């Protein structure tokens, strides 16, 4: 660690994504693991974060006191749960640090709280932290704009591992939002999440979502633009959770020098 390394906190440190974040911080120049946080009562409190992540001892002990960690740190990486992320955003605002949020399944009320925290914190939030998916979002917006709703239907298909608790995935919603933006419509009013029974013909201009769950799939997403006699498919396949962790660390390093505010990965990648 050099004196200029960005001091990062990983919350949910013992989870699958938390461990991946710890390994990634260890491998990325310019970042250092400063603290690791787990929920009160976790069996991992007091354990060495590096050992949990399979790195060997790092000297960083897992704690259940996030604010103490945040006040001395420069940024927090957060792939936890909506309620926890809202709490952490408030603490990040108090500490006036960077808060990178990869948590999905957040409500409109949660989003309002993140926006409020962004008056003092530098918040980067995305439904997906990978470079490839964010580029896919840009391409989806362009394709939806070019291929109009009169002749082209949009369907979004996603598959994830059997442990995922929210549906459609945050990434599917990110892609749906990009398609809706391309067509200058609101996603909420035009999305179809469920089809069952006698549905009648497909309503023109709607954006359909299909959700598959099973096995250990990290993330598969396809945007299908279906026209008369032809079909365009844009897709992304994630084969390693580390792509999200690398994106999150990249986001933190980028946000270190920004003004307080609410940012997305498109800002980080210069695609906005």
Automatic annotation (TrEMBL):
Listed InterPro entries: DapB_C, DapB_N, DapB_N_CS, DHDPR_bac, NAD(P)-bd_dom_sf
GO molecular function, one term: 4-hydroxy-tetrahydrodipicolinate reductase
Binding site residues for (S)-2,3,4,5-tetrahydrodipicolinate: 161, 170-171
Family that this chain belongs to: Belongs to the DapB family.
Domain Dihydrodipicolinate reductase N-terminal: 6-129
Function of the molecule: Catalyzes the conversion of 4-hydroxy-tetrahydrodipicolinate (HTPA) to tetrahydrodipicolinate.
Involved pathway(s): Amino-acid biosynthesis; L-lysine biosynthesis via DAP pathway; (S)-tetrahydrodipicolinate from L-aspartate: step 4/4
PANTHER family: 4-HYDROXY-TETRAHYDRODIPICOLINATE REDUCTASE 1, CHLOROPLASTIC-RELATED, DIHYDRODIPICOLINATE REDUCTASE
Span of the signal peptide: none
Primary location class: cytoplasm
Biological classification of the source: Bacteria, Pseudomonadati, Pseudomonadota, Alphaproteobacteria, Hyphomicrobiales
All copies of domain Dihydrodipicolinate reductase C-terminal, residue ranges: 132-269
Root EC class: oxidoreductase
Binding locations of NAD(+): 12-17, 38, 102-104, 126-129
Subunit structure comment from the entry: Homotetramer.
Record bears the keyword Phosphoprotein: no
Residues annotated as catalytic: 160 (proton donor/acceptor), 164 (proton donor)
UniProt catalytic activity: (S)-2,3,4,5-tetrahydrodipicolinate + NAD(+) + H2O = (2S,4S)-4-hydroxy-2,3,4,5-tetrahydrodipicolinate + NADH + H(+); (S)-2,3,4,5-tetrahydrodipicolinate + NADP(+) + H2O = (2S,4S)-4-hydroxy-2,3,4,5-tetrahydrodipicolinate + NADPH + H(+)
Gene transcribed to yield this protein: dapB
Pfam families cross-referenced by the UniProt entry: DapB_C, DapB_N
Source organism: Rhizobium herbae
Residues reported in the UniProt entry to bind NADP(+): 39
Protein name as annotated: 4-hydroxy-tetrahydrodipicolinate reductase
EC number from the UniProt entry: 1.17.1.8
Subcellular location: Cytoplasm
UniProt KW keywords: Amino-acid biosynthesis, Cytoplasm, Diaminopimelate biosynthesis, Lysine biosynthesis, NAD, NADP, Oxidoreductase
């Amino acid at each position: 660690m050099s004196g200029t390394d960005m001091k990062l906190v990983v919350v949910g440190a013992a989870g699958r994504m938390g461990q991946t974040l710890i390994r990634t911080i260890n491998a990325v120049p310019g970042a250092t693991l400063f603290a690791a946080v787990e929920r009160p009562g976790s069996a991992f409190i007091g354990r060495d974060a590096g050992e949990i992540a399979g790195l060997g001892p790092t000297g960083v002990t897992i704690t259940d006191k996030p604010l103490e960690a945040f006040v001395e740190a420069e940024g927090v990486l957060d792939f936890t749960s909506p309620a926890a992320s809202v709490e952490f955003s408030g603490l990040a605002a108090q500490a006036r640090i960077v808060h990178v949020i990869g948590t999905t399944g957040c409500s409109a009320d949660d989003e309002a709280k993140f926006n409020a925290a962004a008056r003092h914190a530098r918040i980067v939030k995305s439904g997906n932290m990978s470079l490839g998916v964010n580029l896919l979002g840009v391409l989806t917006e362009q394709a939806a704009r070019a291929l109009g709703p009169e002749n082209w239907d949009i369907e979004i298909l996603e598959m994830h591992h059997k442990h995922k608790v929210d549906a459609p995935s945050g990434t599917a919603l990110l892609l749906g939002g990009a398609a809706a933006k391309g067509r200058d419509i609101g996603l909420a009013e035009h999305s179809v999440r469920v089809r069952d029974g006698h549905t009648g013909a497909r309503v023109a201009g709607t954006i359909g979502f299909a959700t598959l769950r099973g096995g250990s799939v990290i993330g598969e997403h396809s945007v299908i633009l279906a026209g008369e006699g032809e079909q365009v498919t844009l897709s992304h396949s994630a084969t390693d959770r580390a792509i999200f962790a690398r994106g999150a660390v990249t986001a933190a390093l980028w946000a270190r020098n920004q003004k307080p505010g609410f940012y997305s990965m498109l800002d980080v990648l210069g695609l906005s």
